[in-house]
Specification:
Pfam families: F-box-like
Number of helices: 14
Shape: globular
Distance between the termini: 31 Å
Mean pLDDT: 78
Domain F-box: 26-67
Order of helices and strands: EEHHHEHEHHEHEHEHEHEHEEHEHEHEEE
Protein name: F-box domain-containing protein
CATH class of the largest domain: Alpha Beta
Structural class: alpha/beta
Number of domains: 3
Organism: Marasmius oreades (fairy-ring Marasmius)
């Protein structure tokens, strides 16, 4: 888009509008809204808002749709609560806010506790928010103080549209009980569940929720053990997204038994711990027949038998699933050497659009078969131990340039190649997608 200034034209990076004639023309306001709705960069939106009054009116709803604040780190000065101050100064902005993210460390909270009162007051006025996130600026999981939990719950009590609650900290049973008073929440994601009592409180919350929850994420799952499978199964039937992170105590067979009770599941992100013989788990006709996104995180295997058990587990989960995205990620950075066995399972998933295997060692034959099999692949992330294998990628066309020379022509939009010392990004791709 552009504006005239002193006879010259200034271009803004948010978008560029080319008119068919030199005469000034006006786009319909709905068209402007549709264009601006596709811009996610805050700086670009801010520049758009400064061009003219019409664009200012169109940009403001998107500019304040999602707001975030980081409480000043290790400073005794007043925390910088800019977005919330702007909303309190201009109350008409409240209606546009849909998502709020607060980055706050325990040290910062203890230092600024009294000064954060305006933050909770401003949050309580945002009745239209659908998502709330509390996290640490450095992505660590501090113990959530009871008084902080009470402040958050009190501020969110009037948010009748709140659906998603993300609290990336160490959560106790008392905190879960307090959060359970937020009756509209249907999706929860926690950093660390501390004990079985916490899991019991979470189960009680799930049981009381009308219509059930559709999303559950536990990034560190110490509270989930082998004896808890019977506790979990009654509450997961409504889930379409499930994330069970590291340090849980569920052996492979128990994980499969849990998944039997998730007929609506579409997104699964799980950490695999083995070895354990799978035995037989009754799947039923609808077993994971809606699962489209599977991410499996693992720790390196000490013997061939453990690797085979892992293959059988993946095959069991993926066999009846219409997968469109598959990720295999090493938690301890140990490479996965049985690429052929793994890919033999995936070759039946011809609808795959995203393949994220940055820790799987691929040879020339596996790479060639991979590129020739998945004709709908859009995003590919992989590991190449030999730089000479890059020669094969010279046959892969650049995105948006169709050619009959390769089945992926015009389809593949991002390739990321990982070598031991570097990442090599496919040229002309500006950034990695979030799900890669």
């Amino acid at each position: 888009m552009s504006r005239q200034s002193g006879g010259t034209q200034q271009n803004f990076r948010c978008c560029t509008l080319t008119m068919a004639t030199s005469e000034p023309q006006k786009l319909p306001f709905d068209a402007v809204l549709s264009i601006l709705d596709r811009i996610t960069d805050k700086n670009s939106l801010y520049e758009c808002a400064r061009t003219c009054r019409s664009f200012h009116e169109a940009v403001i709803p998107n500019l304040y749709k999602s707001i975030s604040v980081v409480v000043a780190r290790y400073h005794k000065s007043l925390p910088q609560l800019g977005p919330f101050k702007a909303i309190e100064t201009h109350p008409y902005l409240r209606q546009y806010v849909k998502s709020v993210e607060i980055s706050l460390g325990l040290y910062d909270y203890n230092m600024h506790r009294d000064r954060l009162v305006p933050l909770w007051k401003a949050l309580s006025h945002l009745s239209n928010i659908t998502s709330f996130t509390l996290k640490h600026p450095e992505d660590t999981y501090f113990h959530l103080p009871g008084i902080l939990t009470a402040s958050i719950v009190s501020a969110l009590a009037g948010c009748e549209k709140l659906e998603r609650l993300t609290v990336l900290s160490a959560i106790s049973a008392i905190s879960i009980e307090r959060f359970s008073s937020l009756k509209t929440v249907k999706a929860v994601r926690f950093g660390h569940l501390l004990s079985s009592q916490t899991l019991n409180a979470l189960g009680k919350w799930f049981r009381q929720a009308e219509g059930g929850f559709h999303t559950l994420g536990i990034l560190i799952a110490h509270a989930v053990g082998a004896g808890d499978i019977d506790q979990l199964t009654p509450y997961v039937s409504s889930l379409h997204t499930l994330h069970i992170g590291r340090n849980h105590g569920l052996p492979p067979r128990d994980l499969l038994s849990l998944l039997v009770h998730t007929p609506r599941l579409q997104f699964l992100d799980v950490t695999y711990y083995g070895p354990q013989p799978l035995g037989l788990v009754e799947r039923g006709s609808g077993y994971l027949n809606q699962l489209q996104n599977l991410a499996v995180r693992y720790y390196g295997f000490s013997d061939l038998s453990s690797s085979h058990d892992f293959h059988h587990w993946i095959e069991y989960v993926a066999s009846s699933s219409p997968l469109k995205s598959f990720s295999l990620i090493s938690n301890d950075r140990r490479k996965y050497e049985l690429a052929r066995e793994l890919l033999s399972i995936l070759y039946t998933k011809t609808e795959l659009e995203v393949l994220n295997i940055p820790d799987v060692l691929l040879g020339r034959s596996e790479l060639g078969t991979l590129l020739g099999t998945f004709k709908k692949l859009r995003v590919l992330s992989l590991f190449l131990p030999d730089i000479n294998l890059l020669v094969r990628f010279s046959q892969v066309p650049r995105p948006h340039k169709r050619s009959s020379a390769h089945p992926l022509a015009g389809v593949l939009s991002f390739i990321q190649i990982k070598r031991p010392a570097a990442y090599i990004n496919y040229r002309d791709i500006p950034a990695s997608p979030k799900n890669c």
